[in-house]
Design goal:
heterodimer; A: mainly alpha; ABC transporter involved in vitamin B12 uptake, BtuC; two-stranded antiparallel ribbon; globular; B: 516 residues; alpha/beta; Rossmann fold
């Protein structure tokens, strides 16, 4: 058995591949649902209903999708240039800290700046914090050949400990009864609600706008070409005159900035302050989303909504039929594998010997 | 003649819509050298892979010494006495010759290696066929020619009666090739049979008894070597007559375009050691030499992807920038050695590959926006003018065949985007062509060479680096030879004999050449 690359993907394969991926995912998950002792179809119905079945469900799903879109974009940009940024989680947290540092410290005076300006400064600070956090690994990679997977991954743990230190130290909220959480963002900086009586905030618009910006950047600009060229073949890119080191550094700054913004928007739109559990692994889920989306910036939005819907739906399904919420993780993981294999199968064919 | 030792009957193998081998029937007799001649993609490698069990034929039979060979079983092929010497050697550098030969031929459960017996058998085989190698030498210390001898020894040690050599002379100096031919002669004199794969007409005629020509998967002709000619073989191989471009000597040699003065660069095998060279407008300077003697360092230096360690390089009077985009701006056309991994970015579309070198120029981008309309129009022009076939401007470049990929690279390097608008062609000042015809079919080779000659006649200085001696001698106005990082003086082509170049390639006459 061997794989042969197809010259062109057939139309049938392109239609059948996603269908096959869905069927595979459902089959794998069904076995686990059945094992947990619940009715399979009922469980899936509840899952869908809990994620997308009402205005409230949908608003929860979209709220959850906002940070996922941003970390998904961060990973997409970096992976396109073959800079394997596994540190979006850490970048999100330093972004959140920076947002509070600008918009919450100084006893909530906000430096007496007009709110719009302060809001801009806050976004800038969190983008910069995320960007600088990834700058080190990028420079180590391009100067010394240090593997960025290791450095960015390990930085996550360092950042989490740093956040813990800040939440118990300089940024501790004195009114939180000893609970480790930061001072709150001043009210003027909170994002307004998109739908009243829900948690859905205008951060969704920011995230979608940034997805379009990244898409335009990748497709229509010289930097976008440089990024794609380096990712596809760094030697040929260097031969053609792409400034490789400079581009890798720019990509790192961009990717880190997007993840940092995820932290700021999460604080400004949902939590209002930083806690140690504000992100249930959004940075890591961003990797899954980027891969599900095939590293396409616009598809990142759709993939984020899908993953968020599964996570939110699983919560309500679990309350109703008692299947653990981990089923959502299984579905997301199985769908990722299925989509990756299905994409591969559209590009290759299997031959015997 | 006696019964054939190897008989292929109606071998057919398809890859998708491509018929790589179409009902090929061949016979090989004892004591015979059969040359398998064909262009890249003609089906030579597929046929040999089927023979050796790497592929299974869709139809057809193979019989070795009268017995049918089970398909898809390399071990059966080995046991039947078929030995293969690949173009890229499969030797372990850190082991001795003896270890490499014995490796894999001893049973795993045998507690002690039978070194003494193995050594004796090895030296016996070596003596019998005149393959002189020190069994205790480390492979890493051997020359390419010696390594090839070890590969052949390895096959013979395992009892090969039929030896398949895949492009064996591609890595050898002319002198080493002669030594190889002598060894092959001894082998067939003692009853072995050899299949010799090549696309070089001259050596095929010289070394083989019989020649089988493949074209587009079909066996188009078989002939006795003494009863045919190079012209006839070329006609069979290509299917139509090909005029090799005649490089008349450059008429007017102009000013110095590029000057290297005692330049050193690179490390290890890929290095330049105090190289001096002057390239004038309107001449082709051809650099001969076996690959891996510093040619890559020289090409990269002049392509802007490698910096000199010492010495000076001046381009049009100014120090050479270590930046590809600047060189392209100044009119340096670059054709890299490896078109697949350096020349193009396979996953990106053809049009982006065409403009990649000049994307930063105002023609193709304004501020940071790519001017897609202009870029695609220029790509269309390159595709039309350089006859790039097989994929449109929007298809990924990897869909192109090697020859068409090379045309794309040529077009990108030679066609200035302002040429069309201004009416007059803007020719490059310097062309750095590293193995520009490597792996191309005869028609594409002729095309590439014509383009270089035309650019030369239009006033460009051309640096042609090639390990194909025929190409060097046909194209070069002046010729220099590279060996172990040293470059001989570049002397007019008429001052060089083929033998002198061959000696210099082996390192003998470089010192003499440098002082001349």
């Amino acid at each position: 058995m061997r794989l042969e690359k197809r010259a062109t993907s057939s139309a049938a394969a392109l239609v059948l591949a996603p269908i096959g991926a869905v069927v595979f995912t459902l089959l794998v998950s069904s076995v686990l649902v059945w094992w947990a002792g619940a009715a399979v179809t009922e469980t899936y119905a509840l899952l869908l209903k809990g994620g997308f079945g009402s205005v409230f469900a949908l608003s929860e799903t979209l709220t959850r999708a906002v940070p996922l879109i941003l970390t998904g974009l961060a990973v997409t940009v970096a992976f396109k240039a073959r800079l394997f940024n596994i540190g979006a989680e850490g970048q999100l947290y330093v972004g959140a800290l920076a947002a509070v540092a600008v918009g919450g410290m100084h006893s909530g005076t906000g430096f007496d700046l007009p709110p719009a300006l302060l809001f801009g400064l806050m976004l800038l600070a969190s983008a910069l914090a995320g960007a600088l956090l990834l700058l080190g690994p990028a420079l180590l990679k391009s100067r010394l050949g240090v593997d960025e997977v290791v450095t960015t991954l390990l930085l996550n743990f360092i950042v989490l400990l740093f956040v813990s230190m800040m939440l118990d130290g300089p940024m501790k909220d004195p009114l939180a009864m000893g609970w480790p959480q930061s001072v709150a963002l001043i009210g003027d900086l909170e994002l307004s609600k998109l739908i009243p009586q829900t948690r859905l905030h205008t951060g969704l618009l920011w995230a979608c706008a940034l997805a379009v910006v990244v898409w335009v950047l990748m497709r229509y600009t010289v930097l976008g070409f440089d990024i794609r060229a380096i990712g596809a073949n760094a030697r040929a890119a260097a031969f053609a005159g792409v400034p490789v080191t400079r581009t890798v550094v720019l990509v790192a700054m961009l990717s880190g900035a997007l993840a940092g913004l995820a932290g700021a928007i999460e604080v400004a739109g949902r939590t209002g302050y930083v806690t140690l559990d504000m992100s249930p692994g959004y940075g890591y889920t961003g990797i899954v989303i980027a891969m599900l989306a095939g590293l396409h910036p616009l598809a990142v939005v759709a993939a984020s909504v899908f993953v968020a819907g599964m996570l939110v739906g699983a919560d309500s399904m679990s309350r109703a039929v008692g299947v653990p919420t981990f089923i959502a993780d299984v579905i997301v993981a199985a769908s990722l594998i299925a989509v990756l294999v299905a994409t591969l199968m559209t590009q290759y064919r299997v031959r015997r010997a | 003649m006696t019964a054939p030792v190897l008989e292929l009957t109606q071998i057919t193998r398809r890859f998708g819509d491509l018929v790589a081998n179409d009902a090929i029937s061949l016979q090989l007799h004892a004591g015979e050298i059969l040359a398998l001649l064909g262009e890249n993609g003609a089906g030579k490698s597929t046929l040999v892979s089927i023979l050796f069990g790497h592929y299974v034929a869709d139809a057809g039979q193979i019989a070795v010494f009268g017995k049918s060979l089970p398909p898809g079983d390399p071990k059966a092929a080995l046991d039947a006495g078929i030995g293969m010497v690949h173009q890229h050697f499969t030797l372990a550098d850190n082991l001795s010759v003896l270890d490499n030969v014995v490796m894999g031929s001893e049973p795993l459960w045998q507690p002690f290696s039978r070194r003494q017996a193995a050594r004796q058998r090895l030296s016996e085989v070596a003596r019998r066929f005149g393959l002189d190698v020190d069994p205790d030498a480390l492979i890493g210390n051997l020359s390419v020619g010696e390594r090839q001898r070890v590969e052949i020894l390895k096959a013979l040690y395992r009892g090969a009666r039929i030896l398949i050599l895949d492009e064996p002379t591609a890595v050898l100096t002319p002198g080493e090739s002669e030594a190889l031919f002598a060894v092959l002669g001894q082998m067939v004199a003692q009853g072995l049979s050899i299949i010799f794969i090549s696309h070089k007409l001259g050596e095929v005629l010289r070394v083989s008894h019989r020649i089988a020509v493949l074209r587009a998967g079909k066996l188009v002709a078989q002939a006795d070597a003494h009863a045919t000619t190079q012209e006839q073989l070329a006609l069979w191989m290509v299917g139509h007559a090909v005029e090799p471009p005649r490089a008349l000597p450059g008429k007017s040699v102009g000013d110095v375009v590029c000057a290297l003065d005692t330049v050193s660069a690179g490390t290890g095998r890929e290095r330049l050691d105090a190289v001096s060279l002057q390239l004038h407008a309107g001449e082709i300077v051809a650099i001969a030499g076996v690959s891996g003697n510093g040619q890559t360092a020289l090409a990269e230096l002049l392509s802007g992807t490698r910096a000199a360690i010492s010495g000076t390089v001046r381009l049009l009077g100014a120090p050479l920038a270590h930046r590809p985009s600047r060189l392209v701006e100044l009119g340096v056309a670059r054709i890299p050695e490896d078109r697949h991994t350096v020349g193009v970015i396979g996953d990106l579309p053809v049009w982006e590959n065409v403009v990649s070198e000049r994307l930063r120029s105002p023609v193709f981008s304004r501020w940071f926006w790519v001017r897609r309309a202009q870029a695609r129009a220029h790509a269309q022009q390159v595709i039309a003018q350089f006859d790039v076939r097989g994929a449109g401007a929007l298809a990924p470049a990897r869909a192109l065949s090697g020859g068409n990929m090379q045309k794309l690279i040529l077009g990108r390097a030679l066609l200035h985007p302002d040429s069309g608008a201004a009416g007059a062609a803007i020719t490059p000042r310097l062309i750095v062509a590293h193995q520009p015809s490597w792996g191309l079919d005869i028609g594409a080779v002729a095309y590439v060479q014509q383009q270089l000659i035309a650019a030369r006649d239009a006033g460009a200085a051309v640096l042609l680096i090639s390990d194909d001696l025929d190409e060097v001698m046909a194209m070069g106005d002046r010729i220099a030879v590279m060996h172990a990082g040293h470059l001989s003086a570049a002397r007019p082509a008429v001052d060089w004999s083929r033998e002198a170049i061959g000696l210099a390639m082996a390192g003998a006459a470089v010192a003499a050449g440098a002082t001349a």
